[in-house]
Amino acid sequence: MVDAAAFGTYGVWRGAAALDAGFASSVERLGYGALWIGGSPSGDLRIVDEVLDATERIVVATGIVNIWKDDAAEVARSFRRIEQTHPGRFVVGIGSGHREATAERVRPLASLAAYLDVLDAEGVARDQRLLAALGDRTLALAAERSLGAHPYLTVPDHTRHARGVLDDARAGALLAPEQKVVIHADQEEARGIARRYLKRYFGLENYVGALLRHGVDEGDLAGGGSDALIDLVASNPTVAAAVAGLRAHLDAGADHVAVQALGDDPIGGLDALADALALRG
Description:
Layout: E1 10-15, H1 21-30, E2 34-38, H2 46-53, E3 59-62, E4 65-66, H3 72-85, E5 90-95, H4 108-121, E6 129-131, H5 136-145, E7 148-149, H6 156-169, E8 174-175, E9 178-181, H7 187-198, H8 205-213, H9 227-233, E10 234-235, H10 239-251, E11 257-261, H11 266-276
Parallel strand pairs: 1-2, 1-11, 2-3, 3-5, 4-5, 5-6, 7-8, 9-10, 9-11
Helix pairs in contact: 1-2, 1-11, 3-4, 5-6, 6-10, 10-11
């Protein structure tokens, strides 16, 4: 089992395609408590083996395995293999992806519940899994049937709301939003890096809907995102601005924030943040 406290206050989010043993080792050395593997890693979870083998203490979580892409029984078998080798260090995060990318994505809440039923039957316990969650019903399901929720591309107003939904369903459920940061000498270039990365996400209904429900004006999404929106979801350009962006989620009720550092030197940005957050102390 993984206790929610084992994640620490800050972790690092990195897409599976850009992740390797060296990156994982650096994240642990910098003092972050968790490494989130994004980009729908495959159900064999071999990337999890790789990063756990390269580290000693850090908690690893998928953020997330796509339920339409990988069979629940296969994921459970992979989980058991990993748990045998690295007990208590891995949490399998699952999610239902995006309507625009998955033609078969119908009744996602019921499909998530059915996937969890298989994980139950295969021996993956509630505290060994978590859910990507944006809407209230999915947040409640995450609290009731998993360790908690891992919202992606949200704002502090969503975090505040999510905290209430989770607590109504089960006190103590983990809330671990992702937050992008861009550390750069020039703010306009930092915003450009964020806009290029966010272009596809601003075309996805579930993310856009969550932003609009929690304080973002529709006009802020035009033209690749207003400066105010970009600065909110991808804190930039200084370390101080990045720290403020992370702490805004904690102040709103998050237990843990997964930091996604954008740009050409993510480890450099994470290193500077680690110093500011006193993670190595």
